[in-house]
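lol so apparently i was supposed to do this last week
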Amino acid sequence: MAALRVKLMLTAYTLDRRDRIIAVSPEWDQFALDNEGRSACADLVVGGRLMDAITGDSVRMFMTAILMRVRVSGQSEAVSYRCDSPTTKRRFVMVLEPLADGGVRVTHHLEHEELTNLRIRVRTADYGQRALQRCSICCRIREEGVWVDPFEENRNRDLWVIHTLCDDCKQAPLQRYRQRQLRDPPETAQALGA
Ligand SMILES: [Zn+2]
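anyway here it is w/ zinc ion bound
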């Protein structure tokens, strides 16, 4: 998911009911050219499958579950996440809104940015390479069984990682969804068996 976020931050895209990207926001091309180069521009991204752009099975499953809930419930969901650069902690919110015909609009907003004097370099490990697990939502890494924020360790790091989700981030959207169903049950809630 990390690579996808760089392309999509501050932008929006629309998915059809089969999770194909059918439209991107007007600022996409400029942002893509500034950050990713020509290959990320709208004429090449539109028509692709969202899941092909997401790294890590557990991250794909996480997105699939949220998209399913949004479609079945007819209610929007918001997910807070971190998308750090090597020197900057950044917090975003991703909002998923259901559209007609099973489509979903996904918007990414930057909420908070904090420049540090650290340098945390993160690279995706090759298959079989020794690496740490890194949560694609909160950007924490798992060291000796504990999820830690690399910026909190106060030292420069050069990390090779596998993209996954920590248990907190895996469960948080479903817990929020269930709480909302109890508080404000939509008419279609039975369809999920929730
Ligand atoms: Zn996490």
